[in-house]
Design a protein that fits this description.
There is one protein chain. Helix content is 25%, strand content 32%. It is an alpha+beta fold and 131 residues long. It has one domain: Electron Transport, Fmn-binding Protein, Chain A (Pnp Oxidase, Chain A). A seven-stranded antiparallel β-sheet has the order 2-1-5-6-7-4-3, with helices on both faces. A hairpin with a 5-residue loop joins strand 3 and strand 4. The radius of gyration is 14 Å and the shape is globular. The two termini are 17 Å apart.
Length: 131
């Protein structure tokens, strides 16, 4: 099974101190060989990725707990807010996760994402895994 076939990945981004912070994300394969996910600009992970593009990913459950025996893979992340790859991430995630997309969008509104000034899925993150 390919990493992009996993339902959830544990994405680790890094604080300035070097401490890793794990967040579960949905992920889909992209046409250029990278994997992609979406998030809200201003989320903790986007703030940390502005500091460093270094990330790690690992197959996980919905809470970001690593699956037994799943390897940790290093990569670099790039954030985009528009363009063909942004659109591709949105199409791929919507195709893969279907009815869960509007549910999570609704939950984001209810749980205060809008209060924090964040917009659902306004940033696509492209991850290139190291060879």
């Amino acid at each position: 099974m390919s990493l992009s076939d996993e339902k959830y990945l544990a994405l680790t981004t890094f604080r300035r101190s070097g401490e890793g912070v794990v967040t579960p994300v949905w992920v889909a394969p992209l046409s250029d060989g990278r994997i992609g996910f979406w998030t809200a600009d201003g989320s903790g992970k986007t703030k940390r990725m502005r500091h460093t593009s270094r990330v790690t990913v690992q197959a996980s459950d919905a809470r970001g707990r690593a699956k037994a025996g799943a390897p940790v893979l290093e990569g670099t992340a790039e954030m985009v807010k528009s363009g063909p790859l942004f659109d591709e991430v949105h199409r791929a995630i919507t195709a893969k996760y279907g009815f869960m997309v509007p549910i999570t969008k609704f939950l984001g509104k209810v749980m205060g994402q809008r209060k924090a000034g964040q917009q659902y899925a306004d940033t696509a993150v492209l991850v290139r895994l190291a060879d």
